[in-house]
Amino acid sequence: MIFNAYKDLNRNSKNIHMKRNSFILFIFLFCQLEFIITSHAQNEGRQLSNDTMERISSSTFAMISDYGSNSANEAAVANLVKSWRPKLIITAGDNNYPAGDSSTIDVNVGKYYHEYIKPYSGVYGSGAFVNSFFPTLGNHDVTTSNGTPYLQYFTLPGNERYYDFVNGNVHFFAINSNPSEPDGTSNTSTQATWLKNKLAVSTSKWKIVYFHHSPFASDIVHGNQAWMQWPFKSCGADVVLSGNSHVYERIIIDNFPYIVNGLGGRSIYGLNAVPIAGSQIRYNKNYGALKVTVISDSITFRFYNVFYNLIDSFTLVKEILQIKETEASSFLKVFPNPNNGNFTIALKMAMQQASKIKVIIADGLGHTIYNKEFVSGNEYLEEIIELDKSLPEGVYSLQTIIGNKVEKIHLMLLK
After folding, report:
1. Cβ neighbours for 171, distance < 8 A, ≥ 6 positions apart
2. What's the predicted TM-score (pTM) here?
3. Which helix (H) or strand (E) holds 90?
4. Per-residue pLDDT tens over the stretch 258-273
5. Cα–Cα distance measured from residue 246 to residue 253, given in angstroms and rounded to the nearest whole number
């Protein structure tokens, strides 16, 4: 634009002064606009504390399994996953049907996910700047030369058969659950000992273990695969993700979650008439993928089918922090917390005369979503709050104001 403006000046000498003045005015207005935008962004940034920024920042990753078949079903799942723009993709195996051969791996994997893979040397386009694709070995992947084509195609951490990596506040542990694993698959094996030691020293808030063979499942083909029933909970894991059973199922065993997702595109299995103990939800009507959203205090797992229908949603929560901003003259409590938007606030105050109490609730960006004033005739206030049912899950800030005294607490909405 600037070059063209100077060409015009040379071409029309009669209007040189007018065009020069217009050009200067353009530059001036552009700089003013940039200044306004920058100043607004800086002011907005100053309104968000470090704590709030940490809480509202989130990342999304996707989990698929039993997908690598170069089919319309695989394409539908890939389109679903890409619509989320995930930060990374993990797989629970069977990336390359039918036999894990080098002649099929690029058409089964790279054709659909090359933009997440680095280094990528296939024929379907460019790869990623940073690797964002972290698979595990399934039984179909090790049929040929015990997984050599897989190990040659991907560049992964560690020995590449099993490995770990950290992304944000999540520590991922990829396990090789195939019995052919040289370091074993029993809960006393070299591989299991490696996992226990890694979990023990991890400082990440969330620890996710994933592999192919499901420890527990209600499908009619595989069901429970007992050799992978390791003591994940006592070792410090937060959740286990797996595949191999071509269904979706969420299972709670001993208050520990197992999520099975084998609906990546290959085929769909039937379900046993009676689910296993601990089964919370089962689904085998269509293909789909698991979308996982992580924020500081929570991690939410949502399974969608290829028609973008939400089938299941499950949230894990750690430490809802209560932040006191006043002297110990008053006390604020919210229960239950987490909640679904209906909860009770209880406030004990030092004064005994009637008081006006303002209750304000804001989302992570500071937008007020609830503002109401109550009057208490004594030193204790207890009120039931009902928030708009359309509010999304997440961390919200609740504060009470009495004169110049403020109490603040974070609450978690779960649906």
Report:
1. 164, 165, 202, 204, 206, 207, 208
2. 0.70
3. strand 88-91
4. 999 999 999 999 999 9
5. 20
